[in-house]
Amino acid sequence: MEIGKLLEDILPKARIKVRLIDLVAYASDAGFYYLRPKAVVQPIAESEIIGLFRFSHQHRVPLTFRTGGTSLSGQAITDGILVDLSQYWNKVAIEENGDLVRVQPGITGSVVNGHLKRYKRKIGPDPSSIDAAMMGGILSNNSSGMCCGVKLNSYHTTKHIRFILPDGKTFTTEKVADYDRFEKECQHIYEAIRGMQDQLKGNPALYDLIRRKYETKNTVGYSLNAFIDHQHPLDVLAHLLIGAEGTLGFIAEAVMATVPDYPYKTTAFLYFPDIYAACQAIIPLTVSGAEAVELMDRASLRSIDSLKGVPERLKTLPETAAALLVEFQANSLEDLHAKKNVFLASASSLSMLEAPLFTEDVKEQAFFWKLRKGMFPAVGAVRASGTTVILEDIAFPVAKLGDAILDLQQLFKKYAYHEAIIFGHAKDGNIHFVVTQAFHTAAEIERYDLFLQEVVKLVVETYDGTLKAEHGTGRNMAPFIETEWGGEAYQIMKQLKAVIDPQNLLNPGVIINEDKKAHIANLKPLPTVEQEVDKCIECGYCEHKCPSRNITLTPRQRIVVRRELAGLKAKGNKQDFDQLVSEYQYDGLDTCAVDGLCATACPVDINTGDLVKRLRRENHSQTANSLALTVAKHFGATAFTVGLAVKAGDGMNRIFGESTMRNITGGLKKLIPAVPLWSNQLQPTKGKIEGNRNGSVIYFPTCINRMMGGAKDNKKSVPQTFMSVSAKVGIEIVVPDDINSTCCGQLFSSKGYQAAYVYTSNETIRKLWKWTEGGRLPIVLDVSSCTHTLQHCRTVLSDENKAYFDQMSIIDSIDYLHDLVLPKLKEVHKKDSIVLHPVCTLKKMGLEGKLFQIADRFAHEVEVPLMAGCCGMAGDRGFLFPELTAAATAPEAAEVKGAEYAGYYSTAKTCEMAMSDAVSKNYESILYLVDECL
Fold it and tell me: Which of 42, 342, 889, 916 has the fewest C-beta atoms lying within 10 Å of its C-beta?
């Protein structure tokens, strides 16, 4: 069966993925299972979803829905058709002044919260993966998190749902008419649910068990509390879909009640001599009103203690120590301090290593939570290469938590999980533990199997706890649902699945699974790959940052494919290996912007761009490397030639029409793909860049602004604008005479021409040493990515140049404006409202705050789009692969087009070109804002 061809009756070919690289890329999620789909599809409408259900039944092919792919229990993978909702199902609407929010499944929780922020509201669920996790998974897994507990989880905060059943029928709990229609059109489901309700009413013991078990976090099996919380079968079914992990239907839309996002918070790490002592503080903290109480054992703290910025105290704790990350929240400082003081009054009775030290500093709080949220992925940095990271999610009664953890630690010792770590939401008795092991041999698999069997016994029989508190049953705990719930409750779950999905084609194997060894089937291998990315555990936290995510691969998928290549090579499968290598060239290498933003979201700072640069480097022939080195050694002539070409192209446009060069290069590109596409934003730099012989600052106009730094409407060029701003505040600027032959090296670094990059970096640093009079004067660059490149070139410098480098101050134009220009200002003119596009390197350099402060000084309102991200231009990559830039800018552009602004600003010329094309407005350097307002 040519499944891709058959699916074209439902979807256009462009939204059907059947190439080998597509199937491999989607074979993994954040869990430790692996299934390769037969096809990946991207529907955009409910009619297409219905068509896919029909196709699934007609051809008996399983169907699985997936959004962010951050699930941990194997519920977002399939060997059938994988329905990717991450690109098109991303609508959000705020209702009732922020008290309600309407969401589709393909939007991340953090973006929803971003829309709610102005109303001082947020969604109830707050999983640590909220930046990457999407609403489809948050709903389908009944997510909770660090602060929401049970009462504010997905189940309890969902007001209405619109859903599609496997038979294609669509219902919504918002329409009164749908209640009668459901009874008539789905009579068999209606009556089955009624029968289950009656069964539970007739069994007080089971009824009470359900009520009791959902007083704590529980995502084992289906949400049986729906049968006793709601009366009408449509409401029951709607809430059964919450936590059903996509096995009963498709959630097309949900209306959720929001919760307060308290403006005042105080946060602290509390340190204890051991984990048992830490557990004794949970109840006092809860009683005093703590919103979050996060438990961390010594091993989990050790997994993050090498990260930059970690409190020194974490590194010196005793071997048996444990910590609680605690946060109080309130609507006023008075209420906040009152809550904190209630706890502090009782703190003396607790066994702490030192007195609590709370902080109200927003940046420090954010960093504390970044450490906590990254704790699970951080284990990837310390695991042995080739091993898999396994995260389990259990809950115990809070009063018994300390004893339960001690018993769990004994199991770690028994099964030789010496690197195991424990952390979790202590307030709810919910802990996560992480173990690492290989699955290369039957003995290793048996070890995990026996260990898990004992964990199940410990949780269920010894402590009457929960096997899955918030991560969903998936494949991982499917064999043990009956163990926790008992035979009658499990039969109700099986009956429910059978009546709604009688052919068992909707995410089969998840929740209901007759295979008692399902937890050790289809285990995911993690073969050793390149050292730049080998520590990745495929959590997916990076994906929302990637500019190529909606066109080819994400950073996680690039790594997944590298691992598949390693596996194919080991197996000697040359045919698939060669095919995958061929497809990886465009998807993995050509369309990677190497912007490094993935590292800012990765808990262990993996920059997939470093891998791509290395692979590009290895792909270059000796001839190509020699040519690049020649260009570097004669850069002045190269820059002059490119400048002439830009001027010639501009002249062609002036004579024959504005789009002449774009049409010509577009036609050539169809014949020769390597031809760069002309941008109508290209403007040659006019006039000579002149400075003073003597001055207090060295200006390094970057080559991009020397060649194409001009502006439309006969405005000054970027270099001229820099000089104008400086003159207006009385700063004398020196422009070196031989600047035209100088480059930062980014051109060669991003393309993997190492020899050319090394030569250029050393030559430039040598010049800078002379220009700055031995490091006495600061040097300013006017493109943030060029600044970043120079600031990070030290590793390729000679020893002599390293000594020079260490004594020089290389700063960005944003540093210059914030640190040197703003302090000289008094009264300035302000624009009404402006919008910013913070470029990637500005984020990596930590200069966003300075950019916002500059903008605030010159505008009454400053907007930064929620969807602001990498534009995909990546120097010249957008000229070579314009489809990358188009895809990367689309979400941000759609948001910006919703309003009109008095100015559109950024800090890198090519990024400004990309955003100008995407928004049809003139983006320009922030220097223009400053110049026009002085």
Answer: 342
